[in-house]
Amino acid sequence: MPGCLLPQRVVTTLIGFFALVWAYTHRVSISHVITELVVPINRTDSNTEQEDVCPPEEADGGREVGTLINNLGIYEWSEQMQGYVLGSFYIGYLITHMPGGIVADKYGAKWVLAICMGVSTLCTIFCPLAIEYGEQWGLMCVRIMMGAAQGLLFPSLTTLLSAWVPTKERGKLGTLCYSGVTAGTVVSNLGSGLMLHAFHWSVTLYVFAIVTAIWFIIFIFLCSSEPSSHLCIKPKEMAYLDEEIPKKSGNKVPIPWKEIMLSKEMFAVIVSQIGHDWGYFVMISCLPKYMANVLQFSVRSNGIVTALPFIAMFLSTLLFGHVADWIIRSGKLTITVERKLFTIIGAFFPGLFMVLASYAGCNKTLVVTLFTISMFVMGPYYSGQKLTPLDMAPSYSGTIMAITNGLGSLAGMLSPPIVGLLTPNATMNEWRMVFWLGFAILVISAIVFAIWGTAEVQPYDPRFAEKKAG
Question: Which of 44, 289, 327, 418 has the greatest number of beta carbons closer than 10 A?
Answer without folding.
Answer: 289
